[in-house]
Amino acid sequence: MLSAEPSAGVPADALGRLVRRARRLADDAETTGAGLRATSSAKVSRRLGGEVLWVAGAGAAGGDSDVHAGSGSGRAGALIGLRLSRIHAALGDGELDDEPHVASLAGCCVVASAGLCPPEALLHAVVPATHVDVAQPDAVMALCLAADGARLAHACFGGSAAWISYEAGGALLARELGRAATEPGVRMALLARRGLVTWGETEEACAAATQAASRRARAFLAARAPGPRCGGRALAPLDRRERTRLLTWLSPVLRSALGSRRPKVVEHDSSPAVLEFISSPDAPLLAAAGPACPQQVVHTQRAPLWIDVDARRDDAGDIAERIVRGARRHRACVRFEAATFGGGDAPLDPDARVVLIEGLGLLAAGPTRRDARRALLAYRHAIEAIGGAASLDRFVPPSTAECGAFERALRGV
Predict the structure, then answer these.
(1) What domains are there in the chain, each with its CATH number?
(2) Of the four listed, 26, 74, 128, 236, which is most buried by Cβ atoms within 10 Å?
(3) CA 317/CA 239 separation, integer angstroms
(4) 24-82 pLDDT, tens per residue?
(5) What pTM does this model have?
(6) Are 351 and 365 in contact (CB under 8 A)?
């Protein structure tokens, strides 16, 4: 990784401002959305070697933000610098036409020891603006995940937003974005199942564009889908006292079922939005369909473990038995998906990270409280995006293959 050192030939204050902008973006949880991840960039002229694209990745959980370089290291203040001329040359001569994993951009880094580039680096490079943000605001993701997202995006933003269909190859996606960003009047782009790209010639203009897009999408969603989401309510959630009693009884079962490899901390959420989702008739299918964006998979896996509950017939023992059986099936499914779509690497921990218990709440597990909290927040935002997409239209999540491609790119394999 590369820190903002004077030897880099770039004013330290310019890189410091970029890091601060990335942190501000990360601290706005609604803007970072289900991926709990956003990237900001600045194109800065270097004394030697021409223009350099500096990218700061940001991740946030509960007000905690880390600036990293896409590898999940969480090193504060770390940046990646890429020579723009080399990136454009690689895109132009077809060098990146296959599957452009971020490791293939190593030759574009300004120092040989730089870490892996964020998977979104190409998106930052092709937009002809000084400052670029890539994020996943909840309401914008509702449009990006809708089957008729192109029409809905135009209804929301008009000609100011370009719609980019999902392309598995990062180079294809980057080329489409680069062409769209040069169109007259286009000030942002919505990437199907991927997120929002905004830009500006100043830091302030870029940040304002990101915030304005998020606000406008929220207003559009509220106007178009004001009623109950996900098919309305199928059953009434358990009352607070009963939820507390059951969770107390089930806590040891959950920690054991979700900690087959190592002990886990379990966090619980029974907020109104969560209870509305898990009590709706469409929730089991929506949850199983996939995540709100590929970035979310880093925190929650592709799909949660869903536990059916019949409040009229089931007792705590019935629910516990379903948790144990479901956790076993979930591990087998995660191993299969990793072997098939994840580049052949077995997951280090196939245990479920998110459990949705009908009528009871959302539970998230992690080796530390911080990890569990990240998973909980990521899925809470996913509920907003998925519910919004389902209320507007039909929810179309990233496929298992698309999620696997993102994870491979993140690891640089």
Answers:
(1) 2-224 (3.40.225.10), 240-411 (3.40.225.10)
(2) 26
(3) 19
(4) 887 776 777 877 778 899 998 766 557 889 888 766 433 344 433 333 333 334 578 88
(5) 0.87
(6) yes
